[in-house]
Fold:
Amino acid sequence: MKDLLFSLSAAACTGYIHDAAVLAEAELKKYATVTRTGNTVIGQMGDGDYTLLLDAHIDEIALTVTDVDEQGFLTVANCGGFDPRTLPARPVNVHTKSGVIPAVFCSTPPHLSSGEINYDSVSALKIDSLLGEDAKNVIALGDLITYDMRPVALAGNRVSGKSFDNRAGVTCLLELARRISGKDLPFKIVFVFSDQEELGCRGAKTATYAVNPDEAIVLDVSFGDGPDIGAYECGKLSCGGMIGCSPVLDREISDKLIDLAHEHNIPYQTEAMGRSTGTNSDVISVVGNGVRTGLISIPLRNMHTDTEVVDLDDMTAVVDLLEQYILSGGVSRD
Structure:
């Protein structure tokens, strides 16, 4: 799974940029009947009157150009959640009509700053296109910008890179499709790699209307443990996937996932949420007449940065659990 995750992470995917979606589509076609609309990929395995939808969003956070000045410095707005403190000196790619332009966020040298520099928003920063006065001829308002960072292996089975939120989930579903390919499936399974989750869970909503499933499980990431983060606010890396428990989620699905984890000695942890989950499960569960929906999250450190960290063992545990859930027949259909 590491090689696949690294390939998906290195590719960009947001708005008119389709690289990761094209890659995922080609991989899923090995096991399923696949269609793609924009960046939303839908693949079907098995048949029958009962449908399980498995969703993982494939889009990533991005920026869009709002101004290009005479010196080639760009002002941007965020498309998704960014912490401006993490951006100075970060390399990025500007996706223009004529190709990808490498650029970098400006950073004031500490020698020239007086005390801490405070940024109120992403628009307070500038990106250096390195093109000078020619920038206006190459870069247009509305051009999208993504992180430029290659994934790396860390100690043990941990890895770091950009857009592991949620290419880690996409990778797990592709591995699941490979595992169950050729097996006698108890119902129809539809894989959805949805677009625009970072912009308000838009792609999952439209895809669910198209699929009209009987139940769904969303695969996403959630906060991993780290300094200054309370234990109740996060999951622990290397302790398995996080099974969601929330009023918006179906309790029977959550309970069955927990029971299967115990039965098959699959490591897991639970994540309790008082209201919405902040994932596609919030919108999938209310499509049409409502869809019974579960949620499994992969613990991830440094969320919404270009150095996100996950443990491949957690991803394997998530695939193990989903495979057992499918082979067991899902939840009661009474």
